[in-house]
Amino acid sequence: MRRIVSVTPLPGLAVHVRLTDRSERDIDLTPYLWGPVFEPLLADRALFEAVFVDPVSKTIAWPNGADLDPDVLLGDAEPARRAPE
């Protein structure tokens, strides 16, 4: 199972991640950042840039408690619910 080992915020709503298999990728988070827990990230760039790798789940997370499922984020699984259109 691939997991995230480092994350760097990029312009817009994107991040650069390095994975346990030594691959790297840039991910546009726009499709994932919806709902009440992500609203503060959209309103406060400093909070968005405070992204870190959670040491337990090995996915990206933020100080406000928001995180993203690593399997969905890396394209290995479908989200349980899709963003409203």
Summed up:
This protein is an alpha+beta fold and 85 residues long. It has helices at residues 39-43, 45-48, 70-73; strands spanning 4-10, 14-19, 24-28, 52-53, 60-61.
Descriptive overview:
Helices cover 15% and strands 26% of the residues. 14% of the residues are buried. The protein has three helices and five strands; from the N terminus they run E-E-E-H-H-E-E-H. The protein has a single domain (4-67), classed as NE0471-like N-terminal domain (NE0471 N-terminal domain-like). The protein is of the alpha+beta class. It is globular, with a radius of gyration of 12 Å. The strands form two sheets. It has a three-stranded antiparallel beta sheet with strand order 1-2-3, with no helix packed on it. The protein has a two-stranded antiparallel ribbon with strand order 4-5.
Tally of structural domains: 1
Strand content: 25-35%
CATH superfamily: NE0471-like N-terminal domain
In spatial order, strands of the major sheet run 1-2-3
- Mean pLDDT across every amino acid position: 88
- What kind of oligomer do you see? single chain
Tally of DSSP helical segments = 3
**Broad shape:** globular
Tell me what the CATH architecture is.
2-Layer Sandwich
Query: How would you characterize the largest beta sheet?
Result: 3 strands, antiparallel
Q: Give the H and E element order.
A: EEEHHEEH
What is the CATH class name?
Alpha Beta
Label the structural class: alpha+beta
Whole-Å distance between the termini?
Answer: 31 Å
Rg is 12 Å
Based on DSSP secondary structure assignment, what is the total number of beta strands?
5
Q: State the helicity in percent bands.
A: 10-25%
Q: Which residues sit in consecutive blocks of at least 5 with pLDDT less than 50?
A: none
The CATH topology turns out to be NE0471 N-terminal domain-like
